[in-house]
Structures are given as C-alpha cells and as structure tokens.
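User: Could you write out the 3D structure of this protein bound to FE2/S2 (inorganic) cluster? I've included everything you need below.
Assistant: Certainly. Input first, then the structure.
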Amino acid sequence: MNTSNIHWYDACAVDDIPKRGAVRLAHGSKTIAIFRSSDNKLFAIDDACPHKGGPLSDGIVHGDCVTCPLHNWRINLESGRAEGSDDGCVSTYPVRTSQQRVYVELTEVRDIGFA
Ligand code: FES
C-alpha cells in the first residue's frame, strides 16, 4: 500500500465533541462526522446515511451505533454498515488521539474545515 498520500488531519480537541454527539468536518464535496461515544470511543464516517443521505451527525448515538434522524436506520460507527435487515454502508476513516487532539486519517487533504 502506498502511504505517501496519507495525512493525519488535526481535526479538533477531544472535548470539542460532545459525548454521544458529533462534529462535522467539511472535506471537499463531502462532510465527515466525527462521533464520540458515551465511553469516549471516537469514530469518523461520512455524514450521509446510506439510505437517503440523512445527516448522521444529527442522529442518536447509542453504544457504537448511530440512529439516522430521518428513518431510523442504525449505522455501525466502526464498520459504517447498516445493521439489522437494512443494507448499505458509508465510508469510515481511521481516528487517533494525541495530547487530547483528534486526528483523522485522510488520503487527501483539500477544502477542509468545520462544516
Ligand atoms: S436517510 Fe437515513 S434512514 Fe433514511
């Protein structure tokens, strides 16, 4: 795997993300949602539900899942896959923390900022 185009983008402070909530990061034409679970796990996924594009960052976080605010699909934050009988998937991005900062791994950094 060619890692020369991988960037760890310094997205925000851990405390910028509310527990069981999310912050949005504009990335080119996409929006990435960075979630924080009640036990402080962090996840980054595309902020567009695989059903009809609902804003997952406005959903309810429970465990390692988020429920879409539009039609209640449950999306696994680790895998990006819809759970239960629903079928669909969103892109996920590796996340790490260092000194209370949150870094998201992106293969390209362009037009980026808080959404
Ligand atoms: S758009 Fe998310 S469940 Fe329909």
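The chain is about 0% helix and 45% strand.
User: Perfect, thank you.
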